[in-house]
Specification:
Layout (H helix, E strand, L loop, with lengths): L8 H14 L3 E6 L4 E6 L23 E7 L7 H9 L4 E7 L5 E14 L2 E8 L9 H16 L9 E8 L3 H17 L3 E9 L11 H14 L3 E4 L5 H11 L2 E4 H12 L3 H15 L26 H36 L4 E6 L5 H9 L16 E6 L5 E6 L9 H6 L1 H8 L3 E7 L5 H14 L7 E6 L6 H11 L2 E2 L9 H16 L5 H11 L1
Parallel strand pairs: 3-4, 7-8, 7-9, 9-10, 11-13, 11-14, 14-15, 15-16
Antiparallel strand pairs: 1-2, 1-3, 4-5, 5-6, 12-13
Helix pairs in contact: 4-7, 7-8, 8-9, 9-12
């Protein structure tokens, strides 16, 4: 066919005559050069499109194929047609009516739109006969791709990937919205641009796609219109779900856990932090390895050496298991080094205070304010991964060690929690935990519960805790006073040194209480050291 033609009358007649003779739908996938790439033969009610190669993957680019097929019952475009158009990013879909005599009748076509119009992401064109199709198809597709690329890059030159965030919930919608908002903060902290967010409430989750196919079609349209190629689910997806969604949408798919792992990998600076992140990544990826068509059993050569060898999948798994074992050994050495340093602190009999709290609560800013250190403090989640310790001298000439640690977050991945045990051991040796709370965050009560839940999971809920309500300058004074009275805490603004003296006074009181406690019995210390070993 001429490239500028959507459908020629001659080709339409051939299709309808064959379809009439077979009593089946017949279809063609035609490329932009006008050549037939695939011939499809279905049944009386529909046809199946085979898996298409992944190509033309640039933002704003369509598949480069149009679907032309027949309808035996004179019906218009179906929901399946629109789903194929969206999910496969086809240039267009057109159906030709097969009349009782086998000749072509009405033609209906659809193509995607750069923006939704009246809640629809496609336009429908009607013609009463193939000879009256007056569309310059090549020019239409070129202008459509230009507009899709322009809309997808609005806001200037972009370096960051654009992501669409998806939440699927069967519980309280408000809680799901809060979790999705936190996912957006995680994505921005990882350097991503959030193009859109979508939340679907379902009584039953789809075991393959987690959400319905209709919503996935809506996602595909949004991804095309917003220039996005990344979907982030606010849940932990199974390996089969990631494969199913990726195969259906042809987009990159990650879950909340993988996003947090990627964020940690960006922030890790020390050797220890990098080891811990890599160990968590290996544990996450190990069950997600899958074989491909070329992962067939390899044969060894030579006399007496013939036989089935390891598959590529088995080799990859074995290598990852070996890497995991080496990482565990290296982290074991790191834990031993930390234990030696902690013993040195004990010999000097310096009380240890550890800052804990929800991520981005202001722990590092407060640490810098108290110790005059220069630890990186940013308005981003997980700005601190590597623990830092400094000496702090009180006005009464009393010295303590204060430690800044990694922040917590709700639904913290189990693999990450296990991998960061070497870091979290600092909390086990702490004499006092300083729980920093972002009072300006409207979700601070839930964040307090999340931190306390993690402390319980780490068996640290027996430690004495002082709650420090940060960012008091951003909330009404009555709220800060009420929370301090309820929790027995102290309100400060880490950016304002004049608010710190009440906190320092309370810390001195707490330290005096710690030093007045009777020493730990030697047998208890021995049992704990044995457990750590």
């Amino acid at each position: 066919m001429p490239p500028r033609e959507l459908l020629t009358p001659e080709l339409a007649r051939q299709l309808t005559e064959i379809s009439h003779d077979l009593h089946r739908q017949v279809g063609l996938l035609v490329n932009r050069s006008g050549q037939v790439a695939y011939v499809l033969v279905g049944d009386a009610k529909g046809l199946l499109i085979p898996p298409l190669p992944r190509e033309r993957g640039a933002r704003g680019r369509l598949k480069g194929l149009r679907l032309l097929h027949t309808h035996l019952d004179a019906s218009p475009l179906t929901q399946d047609d629109f789903m194929d158009l969206a999910l496969l990013k086809l240039d267009a879909v057109a159906v030709v009516e097969v009349t009782p005599t086998g000749l072509p009748g009405r033609v209906q076509a659809a193509h995607l739109l750069p923006r939704e119009v009246d809640g629809r992401g496609w336009a429908v064109l009607d013609y009463d006969h193939p000879a009256r199709v007056d569309l310059d198809f090549a020019a239409m597709v070129d202008s459509l791709e230009e507009e899709l690329a322009r809309v997808g890059s609005e806001g200037g030159e972009r370096r960051a990937d654009r992501a669409i965030l998806i939440g699927v919930t069967g519980k309280n919608r408000l809680e799901a919205e809060e979790s999705l908002a936190e996912l957006a903060e995680l994505a921005r902290s990882a350097g991503l641009e959030v193009a859109a967010s979508l939340l679907q409430k379902r009584e039953r989750f789809d075991p393959r796609f987690l959400m319905g196919k209709g919503k996935l079609m809506e996602l595909m349209l949004q991804a095309l219109q917003w220039g996005s190629d990344l979907l982030i689910f606010d849940a932990e997806l199974s390996p089969s779900q990631v494969r199913s969604i990726t195969d259906l949408t042809d987009l990159r798919v990650i879950d909340r856990t993988q996003l947090i792992l990627d964020l940690f990998a960006q922030r890790a600076r020390s050797r220890e932090g990098k080891l811990q992140v890599e160990m968590a990544q290996v544990k996450y990826l190990l069950p997600r390895l899958r074989g491909r068509d070329d992962s067939l059993s390899r044969l060894t050569g030579g006399i007496g050496g013939r036989g089935p060898g390891e598959t590529k999948l088995e080799i990859d798994r074995r290598r990852m298991q070996e890497r995991l074992h080496r990482l565990q050994q290296e982290l074991g050495r790191v834990r031993a080094e930390r234990r030696v340093r902690r013993e040195g602190r004990k010999r000097h009999q310096l009380p240890i205070l550890s800052l804990i709290g929800y991520t981005n609560a202001g722990k590092s800013t407060l640490f810098n304010a108290l110790t005059h250190a220069r630890v990186l403090a940013e308005d981003r989640l997980f700005a601190t991964l590597d623990p830092t310790s400094r000496r702090l001298r009180f006005p009464r000439e009393r010295e303590v060690i204060i430690t800044d640690t990694v922040g917590f977050i709700r639904n913290l991945p189990r693999n990450l929690l296990e991998a960061f045990k070497a870091t979290l051991e600092e909390l086990e040796e702490a004499d006092l935990l300083l729980h920093v709370i972002d009072l300006a965050n409207p979700r601070f009560p839930e964040q307090i519960q999340a931190v306390e839940g993690i402390l319980a999971a780490l068996e640290l809920d027996h430690k004495p805790v002082l709650k420090i309500f940060n960012k008091m300058d951003l909330v009404p004074p009555a709220l800060a006073a009420l929370q301090c009275r309820i929790h027995g805490g102290v309100a400060v603004s880490a950016l304002d040194p004049e608010t710190l003296p009440p906190l320092i006074a309370r810390l001195e009181e707490k330290v005096e209480e710690i030093l007045a406690r009777p020493p730990e019995p030697p047998e208890a210390a021995g049992r704990r050291a044995a457990a750590e070993g």
